[in-house]
């Protein structure tokens, strides 16, 4: 098991929006069971990196591997795109994303939200998906909210529903983009608790977060991104306890 390839591996990734270079050669990977947190100032490229990882964004150079399988591309540079839609679908559905703004469908109940993609995208058996959806909603503590609409829930409950929805895809890894940033401080902790539980059960996760305490608590590895490059990385105790670069020192002292 220990020498199985990482669930997600990114090598020398370059990404630009037009003339704006956002990622300038980033290497990052997560092995099965790893929790990798990404920290860095606003605009440093954290969201872009996650979106490139699950192929929501194209990138111009570098490799992305899912369980050792490289993404196949056609074209080069600004004209580079994934070559195989089936591969994209397989990778994207295996790297389930949880967004800052929850992105629940407002016209569907919570249960329908959680069931939608497994049924329509993965074409799984509806009854089995419903059973799993109820189990995941229970797991995140909102098993009693199946039949209500997102607007009837607090932000913390909506985000927990979004996590249940990601889990119901039965993905290989979860990608979180600032999952607690839209929440009031008192609701933040209920989402942090769910993420801690997922880490404790050995889920593979990449988490973009501004919450240094959560990053310190749940991560195996922390990556500090600065202007599209990895400025410093390491185990949380080292990164938070003894930051080496001045940029990380400044970032951390501004984050408390
Ligand atoms: P972070 O998540 O670290 O705050 P982002 O990855 O969102 O950073 O953004 C990195 C840079 O890319 C920023 O300068 C941002 O303005 C720019 N950017 C992000 N998305 C787009 C886009 N769709 N089009 C053009 N520029 C973008
Ligand atoms: Mg972002």
For the largest beta-sheet, the strand count, sense and barrel status come to:
6 strands, mixed
pLDDT averaged residue by residue: 97
Q: Categorize the overall geometry.
A: globular
Helix-strand topology string? EEEHEEEEHEHHHEHEHEEHH
Distance, first to last CA: 38 Å
Give the helix tally. Answer: 9
Unreliable stretches (pLDDT < 50, length at least 5) are: none
Specify the structural class.
alpha/beta
Q: Estimate percent helicity.
A: 25-40%
For the biggest β-sheet, the strand order reads: 8-9-10-3-11-12
The kinds of small molecule bound in this structure are: adenosine-5'-diphosphate, magnesium ion
Radius of gyration over all CA atoms, rounded: 18 Å
Membrane topology: Peripheral membrane protein
Keywords: ATP-binding, Cell membrane, Membrane, Nucleotide-binding, Transport
Domain ABC transporter: 8-252
GO molecular function, one term: ATP binding
């Amino acid at each position: 098991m220990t020498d199985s390839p990482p669930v997600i591996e990114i090598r020398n990734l370059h990404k630009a929006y037009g003339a704006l270079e956002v990622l300038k050669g980033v290497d990052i990977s997560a092995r099965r069971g790893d929790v990798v947190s990404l920290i860095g100032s606003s605009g440093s490229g954290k969201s872009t990196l996650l979106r490139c990882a699950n192929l929501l964004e194209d990138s111009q150079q570098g490799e992305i591997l899912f369980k050792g399988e490289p993404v196949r591309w056609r074209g080069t540079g600004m004209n580079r795109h994934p070559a195989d839609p089936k591969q994209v679908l397989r990778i994207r559905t295996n790297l389930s994303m949880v967004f800052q703004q929850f992105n629940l469908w407002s016209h569907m109940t919570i249960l329908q939200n959680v069931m939608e993609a497994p049924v329509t995208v993965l074409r799984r058996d509806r009854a089995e998906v419903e059973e799993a959806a109820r189990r995941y909603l229970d797991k995140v503590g909102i098993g009693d909210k199946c039949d209500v609409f997102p607007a009837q829930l607090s932000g913390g409950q909506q985000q927990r529903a979004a996590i249940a929805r990601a889990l119901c895809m039965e993905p290989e890894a979860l990608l979180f983009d600032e999952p607690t940033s839209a929440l009031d401080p008192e609701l933040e902790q209920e989402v942090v608790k769910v993420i801690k539980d997922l880490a404790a059960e050995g889920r593979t996760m990449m988490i973009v977060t501004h919450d240094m305490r959560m990053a310190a608590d749940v991560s195996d590895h922390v990556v500090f991104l600065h202007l599209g490059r990895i400025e410093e990385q390491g185990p949380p105790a080292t990164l938070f306890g003894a930051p080496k670069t001045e940029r990380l020192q400044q970032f951390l002292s501004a984050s408390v």
